[in-house]
Amino acid sequence: MQHEYFAASNSSEGFKSYYPEVYGRADRLYVIKGGPGTGKSGFMRKIAESARKNGLEVEYYFCSSDPRSIDGILILGEETVGVIDGTAPHIWEPTHPGAREEIVNLGQFWDQRILRMQKNEIFALSNKKSAAYKRAYDYLRSCGNLRAVSDSLLRQFVDREKLKAAACRLVRSLDLPRGEPTVIPSLLDAVAMTGFFSLDSFEKNAKRVIWIEDFYGVGRLFLGAVFEALSSARETVRIAFDPVDSRLVNGIFLEEHKLAFLLAGKDRAADDEGRSVNSKRFVELERLRAIRGELRYATRLYGDCLDGALHALAEAKVYHFLLEDIYKNSMDFKALNDYTYGFIEKLSL
Predict the structure, then answer these.
(1) For range 302-307, the mean pLDDT
(2) pTM for the full model?
């Protein structure tokens, strides 16, 4: 299966991390410490490649700010082994050092003299990057407020009981075994420095997809009701929360049944069996007409604020890559490479 997800997001709440729920599944956890550009992602990529060559399944969790970079991996074998970036903003400090977690310090391979010589530039770039992120989070907070405005406008015209009943009927029709689900946050979307970015792991892994046609966010409400209805099913449930508003659900994947529930794009109307859900059926459309203009206005403002956040993150990208260049120039990558292969041998994957 294709396991490519995000374990965090740039959201209306600031940086939203799902690290404990995702990496708490590991029996052994290696926490990498090091600056930008010190090879953390490459280190994990080589470990993952080695594990896959040995026939092991690997879950990749990409950076929600820079999706080309890896934030963490989980190697699924007789025991689950995790390797994660434990630096800011997703700081992870060991709770059971030695027994479960181990620190991997990539700072041992940099030349501190080079970094000290460029201390003022590092400070300046870090401050500019932080300021750009602050602006991005201010915009995203506005996105959250505008989503709340849309929700309050819609609430009086959405038949929540009808929506919930339809979600429960849909889940019952799947005839899932009863019990307690295993829920794994597995985000598919990110508000990133390179733009809005989406992954397609749920769709790629699914034998069947039930598409939910959205209408001003009502489709996400329906997905949330489906998730609630799955609370009594013995199933591994991967859930993709909305990257901006973590209260909302963008997608659900039932791992044992290879079944996905996803929001439909313009070219998606039904699954292979003709199954889709049009969220308009839960809305009193005639009554909604009175506030539809305001709803469109709030939606347009949301888009403008999201564009503002993406613009600020694009500025942060410039400073981030300049910082990476400084740290890269201080690193002994040959020594790191030798260490990496020794580390892989030690893992005994």
Answers:
(1) 98
(2) 0.94
